[in-house]
Design goal:
- The protein is an alpha/beta fold and 393 residues long.
- The chain has two domains: 30 residues, no CATH class; 305 residues, Rossmann fold.
- It contains 18 helices and nine strands.
- Strands 3-5-2-6-7 form a five-stranded parallel β-sheet, with helices on both faces.
- Strand 8 and strand 9 form a beta hairpin.
- Helix 1 packs across helix 2.
- The longest helix is centred in the N-terminal third of the chain and has 31 residues.
- It is globular, with a radius of gyration of 24 Å.
- Bound molecules: 3'-phosphate-adenosine-5'-phosphate sulfate.
- The site of 3'-phosphate-adenosine-5'-phosphate sulfate has 19 residues, from helix 8, helix 11, helix 16 and strand 9.
Amino acid sequence: MSTGGSLPKASVICAAVLLLGIFVLYHYQSGGCPKLYTVLTGHVAGTAKSNTGDEVTRGDRISESNTGDEVTRGDRISESNTGDEVTRGDRISESNTGDEVTRGDRISESKTRRHSSHRNRLSGSPGKLQRLPRALIIAFSKCGTSTLRSFLTLHPDVVAAPREVRFFNVHFSEGVDWYRRQMPYSSPGQITIEKTPGYIKSIDTLQRIHTFDPDIKLIAIVRNPMTRLQSSYAHRAARHKRYARMGFLKWLSSGAELEKRVKHGSDFVSKIQMVYRVFPEDQLLVLNEEALESDPVTLLNQVYSFLGLNSSISNDVLVFDERKGFYCVNKTHPIFPSLRGLVNKSDGCMRAGKGRKHSEVGGALLQEIVDISRPYVNKLFDVIRTKFNWTYF
Ligand SMILES: Nc1ncnc2c1ncn2[C@@H]1O[C@H](COP(=O)(O)OS(=O)(=O)O)[C@@H](OP(=O)(O)O)[C@H]1O
């Protein structure tokens, strides 16, 4: 009697354990804990993808080959990295432009990570994988790069890494698989983008990008040097009390610094020419920050067409926020929830550090700044064969 009763009980327990096992594996495969999933099943991203029958993209092939035994192109890239260190120039100019990660950024990054991991879990349907970028926003700091990245994801076929990954200029030794793990999950037809304004600053970095993917699309956004200068100061003053105490005019005119500072902020052209030494000209799209402010949808549609997408977005995805003085994402639009981590949840605007109040400058100092900037601006317009309607130039 007792044996007969325990057999069905044992099968019920076995079935329950089996069902629990399937549930746990399914959950972890969906993005909850890919590492544990890998340990349990022996699957890695590349093999899991080919199992789903998804189309294999170029970037994915590079990284997949990394997971194999033979030494492949991807491996060679990471090998050559290991000896590379970030040049002093890269480090200096990054901190100069205020790209360094501050406490505020870290907080919002960790929030972003929470959001994106939540989103990743939600989007762990078959075919959703972390894919390498096919387009990069490589420049310029304080020219609207964050807004451009966030707003580009208004198109259903674009996803973006929510923070600056700095793979090609700082973390290259981590390898391509590390880079892929920083990316959001995407479907086979979606394009992943990443923005790190520091990528344009050195030829070595640009060459690494070229080795990674010679066909990658590059985007740079430039700004009226005067406004960029105001933005750089506002950024510094918000982070360091000593700049706030100093005031904009004193910061600008502190001796021989002026010329250096203005040149640094105005010389987009030498960096753009550096890109042209590595990539064909038609692989770099140069945008105007003022167009991003005044007519963002038109600018975004221009980028989608550059990315090879044949559909566009409509004007109702963005609304002008009078209080903020900038366009923000329309919270009532169905795409809004998918922008979690890329714009404020409360108002659809960029986070507080974007769109600061600018200090004014006039008189002789303004004239001096414009005189220093003008040759760089004129050369830029010549080189990109486009003239932007910038005040003073
Ligand atoms: N829609 C919208 N919302 C908020 N901000 C906007 C927008 N469009 C353009 N901008 C301008 O983007 C400037 C910040 O540039 P970046 O994102 O490149 O700065 S950073 O280098 O990443 O720190 C930021 O500069 P500041 O105004 O000085 O804050 C803005 O002028």
